[in-house]
């Protein structure tokens, strides 16, 4: 084989490799490492051995910090529980940039999906709509609705980007929709903005003023740098403006918008809302669904007022306009109003100083001692003075929303 | 807040103080104690002005036996108003804490144009015609005439002011120009003359550089200031150029034509007076025999032409005989104008020293040095005698006499350069005769001699050891302060290569290289896609900017930029530029984003701030060296080398780098702000160039940011902008305390000052 041929073959082989890399990112054995970056979780101990970093402690510290920052600001603030949120996704040219891997657009889609699920988990009474900006025009992707799946499906089908971005068009469109919703709902817009400029047909400051008048809370998460107009928009309408450093930070910023925000003062008038608690339709019964307009078997809810069938909760009855919810939805929203106080941290030494050190967690009955019989990190509830381990602390505050200590104390 | 610096109690109107402000005050106080001059560099946005004002006013409050008068010189009226507003705040605070005993009188002084309240006078469009319009109403002979004939118009404000005589004083307080006008309107007194009168009594006077440096003005306004004054030159990085300009004159053929017209007009007046009132001319003659026109006896309204030479150099002698008679003087002037016209009519560039110029003038026109020296005063006296009020018409002959007096007085530090056309446009004949001053120390010397402390301060005075040599004085304190920052909010970078790794530079031999223009274009295109809101680009000259924009337009770079941001360009036309700036700001405000192309040493580079979102990035394309083939510059460089032993290269680099620093310093005007600076030229990475940048930029210029290529710069920019967008703590945390409260200062006083100072 001549050298020339060899070279050509080599070239081909290299090309093949390239194609491979483009095709499915990395080789399988590399992939696990890039995702988890397990080498970063190592540290040297005093004897020079490599040990995994105590992730739990770091994670817990982060969590405590977040909890504290939330609880300091949110002492007894009226919260908007019924939220009508539009997520505006900027799909202009800038969204195709590669500074987030593999591209901004993919990262946004991934986290919007997670956010929608988290949002409905925390705000079962609320509704979301999706809008995209592309080629300088804003397109409504989905209408306001309470079903996570339909939103996610709609978004995944539309992921391509081009053209300029226009903040004003998006705001005008969203404002048109949000103006129609009843006064008890909280109007919010969350804009995920990739671009660094906005090409508007008119004066955007007027639009911002109109949004302010309509009491729409506009928040922006930027993906590249701080923009003056976004900052101005958020300041005027009382929203949050943040810029993501990297993917993890972006996720964190997104999730900050999941818990209900404090209600806007002049808007927070106490208001009675008529609600229906529909029954689940009997197994095997056939009825015409009011949302899909076709006959369906079983698996639905019956509006208590007009007896129409709807597919999922919470929603508004298409026939009589009654808000339909289920009682677990209400209960799950309830904890935002009465959060459990953050637990006080007990350093291992403090625990030793007690005359009868607490050895087990009140929640899970696991030992609070680290291997080696040294007391580990623990927390104490300020009300019932029960000790909990770190895992239970997180579980109680993030999922349970009830303190087992206080609850059992009340019954006995 | 209130705190002690050694034996002075300082009243500071804010609750917190930056550490560098504190150390600035300490240094300033030491300079005042030592009764010496000082040179202080502190970056803009750190509150220089208020630190200065509060220390000096507190100093005289603490030491009643040493009343210090503050003379504060600013470059523009806008800065003057800002300073006075700041002083007002401080004054209110001091009154609140000390009672009315702390009352001071502070006034701003500006030209008639800015102070006049008479609507008929204000109708005139420029400064000179406002001055002339005022004189028409207030000159002593006009008023004398009006006393006999009520139909002669006078200014009621001035009449009221005169009638009030010694009762016309300002109560203590701080008066901005606007306050002065309001007060004048209310009382019916002329604010301009009131302010000029009050200057001698005021504790603080704020006015423009020219009032101290230009001998023509200083002789009238500033001659009665006592020695115990503190003179402050703010934003003084260009002070040497101001000094030079104050003593330089240029004569064009237009000037000569105008001068001839003026002369014939004067001739007519003389004829008229001869016919009607010959006694006046004779009286003037007698006065001139006795000695120089005694300006002391003249009414305030009649003084407007002080000698352009410095006070020490004016001879207290009688005017020489050959120009005592009005007609003879006119003849001399005619011959002078004729001679100058002959000199202008030349084919090639000529350079001459004043001595040989005077000698040739003597042989060709028969005017000797002494006669020349007296030209200005003689003209002044003549115009007074002839009762000429429309002085704006006579600017040309004044320029000629100005030239004559200067050339007759000084033999060193000047040269006369005649250029038949502009070097850059050899086809257009535009002869100009320039008397250019090379020695900045000449004009400022009387200021250093007369006043006990002179403070020169600016954001960019680096290298700080060069200024004392240029201005020929010995500062007791010269220090450069850095900015204490809660976060690294400036990000200077030196970009030496394009994305193709070829060096970029505006060096003469590389300038026309299309690769450099392409690389610069590429840099800008990449930057507009990652930087939000406003970007400012500075080029080395108008011609270079025109050239590069043309080539960008042809290669489509401009179109690519326009996809992200709008483009605005500075032109030599002020109105056009103002309009462009206005629209640039609007584009930044509404989120469209914009790029502004500007020129170093231009109006924009000197006076316009691009703070906050108006300037997130400045790109300095090339090093803004002066046009080194300019005859004036060459002459000045020679002089500097021979007299002060400053090497040509050193001076040129110094001058270019201070301009560059001035340009990039436009982006950051306060600590809460942030911005990036790109020095796009391979020569910036050389140590001799870089080290001349001011300390506050150098301290942020990390080694990793030197010698970058476009893609690396892009990466750094992305990271920086993300980092800066995060919320931050304004007071600074842990070891880096950047806002000091009163307790902090008291603690510092206990522990000794030095350890907290950096």
Automatic annotation (TrEMBL), chain A:
Residues 84-273 form the VWFA domain. It is found in: Nucleus. It comes from the Eukaryota. Residues 1-25 are annotated as: Disordered. Keywords: DNA damage, DNA repair, Metal-binding, Nucleus, Transcription, Transcription regulation, Zinc, Zinc-finger. InterPro entries: C1-like_sf, Ssl1-like, TFIIH_C1-like_dom, TFIIH_SSL1/p44, VWF_A, vWFA_dom_sf, Znf_C2H2_type, Znf_RING/FYVE/PHD. Residues 12-25 have a biased composition (Acidic residues). It holds the Pfam family Ssl1. Gene3D superfamilies: von Willebrand factor, type A domain (3.40.50.410), Zinc/RING finger domain, C3HC4 (zinc finger) (3.30.40.10). Residues 1-11 have a biased composition (Basic and acidic residues). The keyword Signal does not apply. Belongs to the GTF2H2 family. PANTHER family: GENERAL TRANSCRIPTION FACTOR IIH SUBUNIT 2, GENERAL TRANSCRIPTION FACTOR IIH SUBUNIT 2-RELATED. This is General transcription factor IIH subunit. It comes from Hevea brasiliensis (Para rubber tree).
Automatic annotation (TrEMBL), chain B:
It catalyses: ATP + H2O = ADP + phosphate + H(+). It is found in: Nucleus. It is an enzyme of class 5 (isomerase). Its main location: nucleus. CDD domains: SF2_C_XPD. Keywords: 4Fe-4S, ATP-binding, DNA damage, DNA repair, DNA-binding, Helicase, Hydrolase, Iron, Iron-sulfur, Isomerase, Metal-binding, Nucleotide-binding, Nucleus. It holds the Pfam family HBB. Signal peptide: none annotated. Its EC number is 5.6.2.3. The keyword 4Fe-4S applies. The keyword Iron-sulfur applies. Its cofactor is [4Fe-4S] cluster. Residues 7-285 form the Helicase ATP-binding domain. It comes from the Eukaryota. Belongs to the helicase family. RAD3/XPD subfamily. PANTHER family: DNA REPAIR DEAD HELICASE RAD3/XP-D SUBFAMILY MEMBER (PTHR11472), GENERAL TRANSCRIPTION AND DNA REPAIR FACTOR IIH HELICASE SUBUNIT XPD (PTHR11472:SF1). This is DNA 5'-3' helicase. It comes from Hevea brasiliensis.
């Amino acid at each position: 084989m001549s050298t020339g041929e060899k070279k050509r073959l080599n070239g081909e082989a290299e090309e093949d490799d390239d194609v491979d890399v483009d095709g499915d990112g990395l080789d399988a054995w590399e992939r696990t490492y890039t995702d988890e970056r397990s080498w970063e979780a190592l540290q040297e101990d005093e004897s020079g051995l490599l040990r995994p970093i105590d992730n739990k402690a770091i994670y817990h510290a982060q969590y405590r910090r977040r909890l504290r920052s939330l609880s300091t600001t949110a002492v007894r603030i009226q919260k908007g529980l019924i939220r009508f949120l539009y997520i505006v996704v900027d799909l202009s040219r800038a969204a195709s940039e590669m500074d987030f891997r593999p591209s901004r657009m993919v990262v946004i889609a991934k986290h919007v999906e997670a956010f929608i699920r988290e949002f409905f988990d925390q705000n079962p009474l609320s509704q979301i709509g999706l809008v995209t900006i592309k080629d300088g025009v804003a397109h409504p992707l989905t209408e306001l609705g309470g079903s996570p799946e339909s939103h996610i499906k709609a978004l995944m089908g539309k992921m391509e980007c081009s053209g300029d971005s226009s903040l004003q068009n998006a705001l005008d469109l969203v404002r048109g929709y949000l103006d129609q919703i009843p006064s008890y709902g909280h109007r919010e817009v969350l804009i995920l903005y990739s671009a660094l400029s906005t090409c508007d047909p008119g004066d955007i400051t007027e639009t911002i003023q109109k949004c302010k008048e309509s009491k729409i809370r506009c928040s922006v998460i930027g993906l590249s740098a701080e923009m003056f107009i976004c900052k101005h928009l958020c300041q005027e309408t009382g929203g949050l403006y943040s810029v993501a450093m990297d993917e993890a930070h972006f996720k964190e910023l997104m999730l900050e918008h999941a818990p209900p925000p404090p209600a806007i003062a002049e808007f927070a008038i106490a208001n009675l809302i008529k609600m229906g608690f529909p029954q689940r339709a009997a197994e095997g019964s056939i009825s015409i669904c009011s949302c899909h307009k076709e006959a369906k078997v079983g698996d639905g809810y019956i509006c208590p007022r007009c007896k129409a069938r709807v597919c999922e909760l919470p929603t508004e009855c298409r026939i009589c306009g009654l808000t339909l919810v289920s009682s677990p939805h209400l209960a799950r929203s309830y904890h935002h109003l009465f959060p459990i106080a953050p637990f006080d941290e007990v350093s291992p030494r403090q625990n030793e100083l007690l005359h009868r050190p607490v050895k087990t967690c009140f929640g899970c009955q696991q030992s609070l001692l680290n291997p080696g019989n040294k007391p580990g990190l623990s927390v104490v509830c300020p009300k019932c003075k029960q000790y909990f381990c770190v895992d239970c602390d997180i579980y109680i505050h993030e999922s349970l929303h009830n303190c087992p200590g206080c609850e059992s104390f009340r019954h006995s | 807040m209130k705190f002690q610096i050694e034996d002075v109690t300082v009243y500071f109107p804010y609750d917190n103080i930056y550490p560098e402000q504190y150390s600035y005050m300490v240094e300033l106080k030491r300079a005042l104690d030592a009764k010496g001059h000082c040179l202080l560099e502190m970056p803009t946005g750190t509150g220089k002005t208020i630190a200065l004002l509060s220390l000096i006013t507190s100093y005289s409050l603490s030491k009643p036996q040493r009343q210090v008068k503050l003379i504060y010189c600013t470059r523009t009226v806008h800065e003057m108003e800002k300073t006075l507003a700041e002083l007002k705040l401080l004054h209110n605070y001091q009154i609140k804490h000390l009672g009315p005993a702390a009352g001071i009188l502070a006034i701003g002084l500006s030209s008639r144009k800015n102070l006049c309240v008479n609507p008929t006078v204000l109708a005139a469009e420029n400064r000179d015609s406002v001055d002339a319009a005022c004189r028409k109403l207030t000159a002593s002979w006009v008023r004398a005439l009006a006393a006999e004939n009520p139909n002669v118009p006078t200014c009621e404000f001035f009449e009221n002011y005169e009638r009030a005589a010694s009762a016309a004083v300002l109560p203590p307080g701080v008066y901005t120009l606007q306050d002065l006008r309001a007060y004048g309107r209310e009382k019916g007194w002329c604010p301009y003359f009131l302010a000029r009168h009050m200057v001698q009594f005021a504790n603080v006077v704020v006015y423009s550089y020219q009032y101290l440096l230009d001998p023509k003005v200083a002789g009238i306004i500033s001659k009665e200031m006592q020695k115990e004054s503190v003179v402050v030159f703010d934003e003084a990085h260009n002070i040497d150029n101001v000094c030079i300009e104050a003593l330089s004159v240029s004569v064009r053929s237009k000037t000569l034509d105008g001068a001839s017209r003026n002369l014939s007009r004067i001739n007519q007046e003389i004829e008229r007076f001869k016919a009607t009132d010959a006694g006046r001319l004779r009286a003037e003659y007698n006065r001139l025999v006795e000695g120089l026109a005694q300006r002391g006896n003249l009414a305030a309204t009649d003084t407007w032409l002080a000698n352009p030479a410095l006070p020490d150099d004016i001879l207290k002698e009688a005017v020489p005989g050959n120009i005592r008679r009005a007609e003879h003087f006119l003849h001399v002037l005619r011959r002078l104008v004729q001679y100058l016209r002959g000199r202008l009519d030349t084919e090639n560039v000529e350079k001459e020293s004043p001595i040989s110029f005077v000698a040739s003038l003597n042989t060709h026109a028969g005017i000797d040095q002494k006669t020349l020296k007296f030209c200005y005063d003689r003209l002044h006296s003549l115009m007074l005698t002839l009762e000429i009020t429309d002085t704006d018409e006579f600017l040309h002959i004044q320029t000629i006499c100005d030239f004559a007096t200067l050339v007759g007085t000084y033999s060193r530090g000047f040269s006369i350069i005649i250029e038949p056309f502009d070097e850059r446009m050899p086809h257009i004949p535009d002869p100009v005769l320039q008397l250019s001053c090379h020695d900045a120390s000449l004009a400022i010397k009387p200021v250093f001699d007369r006043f006990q402390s002179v403070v020169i301060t600016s954001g960019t005075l680096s290298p700080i050891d060069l200024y004392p040599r240029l201005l020929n004085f010995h500062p007791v304190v010269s220090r450069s302060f850095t900015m204490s920052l809660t976060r690294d909010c400036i990000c200077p970078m030196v970009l030496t290569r394009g994305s193709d790794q070829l060096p970029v530079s505006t060096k003469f031999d590389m300038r026309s290289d299309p690769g450099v223009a392409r690389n610069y274009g590429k840099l800008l295109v990449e930057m507009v896609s990652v930087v939000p809101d406003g970007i400012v680009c500075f080029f080395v000259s108008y011609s270079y900017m025109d050239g590069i924009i043309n080539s960008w337009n042809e290669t489509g770079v401009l179109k690519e930029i326009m996809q992200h941001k709008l483009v605005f360009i500075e032109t030599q036309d002020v109105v056009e530029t103002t309009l462009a700036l206005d629209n640039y700001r609007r584009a930044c405000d509404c989120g469209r984003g914009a790029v502004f192309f500007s020129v170093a040493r231009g109006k924009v580079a000197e006076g316009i701030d691009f703070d906050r979102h108006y300037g997130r990035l400045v790109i300095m394309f090339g090093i803004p060296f002066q046009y080194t083939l300019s005859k004036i510059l060459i002459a000045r460089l020679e002089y500097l080398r021979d007299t002060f032993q400053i090497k040509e290269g050193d001076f040129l680099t110094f001058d270019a780098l201070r301009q560059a620093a001035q340009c990039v310093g436009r982006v950051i005007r306060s600590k809460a702000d942030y911005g990036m600076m790109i020095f796009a030229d391979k020569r910036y990475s050389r140590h001799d160039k870089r080290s001349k940048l001011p300390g506050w930029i150098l301290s942020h210029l990390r080694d990793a940011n030197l010698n970058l290529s476009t893609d690396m710069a892009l990466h750094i920019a992305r990271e920086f902008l993300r980092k800066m967008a995060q919320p931050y703590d304004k007071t600074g945390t842990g070891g880096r305390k950047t806002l000091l409260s009163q307790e902090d200062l008291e603690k510092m006083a206990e522990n000794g000052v030095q350890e907290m100072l950096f």
